[in-house]
Amino acid sequence: MKLCFDTTFLIDLQKERGAGRAHTFLSAHREANFFWSAIVAGEFAEGFASADDPVLVHYLRLATVLDVTKETAMIYSRLARGLRGTGKLIGSNDLWIASHALQHRLTLVTNDRAHFRRVRGLPLLGY
């Protein structure tokens, strides 16, 4: 299984300090491949004074960080147009994260499934 995590998951993982839903989820899915969108990495890094902070470096190393490519951008634009047409647009960072998950055929792990359900075809998993 290939899993992509939203920013809230990463923040929850850090806050739990070893015990909680996010840690339990990771333990239950040890065999999976883990990915962060570059957008998630940026949102998470915003909470640290330096990109060299050892805590930040530790958490970002838990998963492969996916860079934004032209393909990601084209998926983003298609999703944004579609959601805008329905009047149910989600935040731009969340749309980038969803675009990465779709591009790489990943299941998005989030506790905001109602929000991400607006993105047609996006596999979701709660924790």
Mind describing the biggest β-sheet?
Answer: 5 strands, parallel
CATH fourth-tier homologous superfamily: 5'-nuclease
Question: What is the name of the CATH class?
Answer: Alpha Beta
Question: Average pLDDT, to the nearest integer?
Answer: 95
Assign the CATH architecture. 3-Layer(aba) Sandwich
Fraction of residues in helix:
40-55%
- Number of helical segments? 7
The total tally of domains equals 1
Class of secondary structure makeup: alpha/beta
What overall form do the CA principal axes indicate?
globular
- Which quaternary structure do these chains form? single chain
Quote the beta fraction. Answer: 5-15%
Describe this structure in words.
This protein is α/β, with parallel strands linked by helices and 127 residues long. The protein has one domain: Rossmann fold, CATH 3.40.50.1010. 52% of the residues lie in helices and 13% in strands. Helix 7 links the parallel strand 4 (107-109) and strand 5. Helix 5 (70-86) packs across helix 6. The two termini are 15 Å apart. The model has no long low-confidence stretch (mean pLDDT 95).
Q: What is the topological layout?
A:
Layout: E1 2-5, H1 7-16, H2 21-28, E2 33-37, H3 38-45, H4 54-60, E3 64-66, H5 70-86, H6 92-103, E4 107-109, H7 113-116, E5 124-125
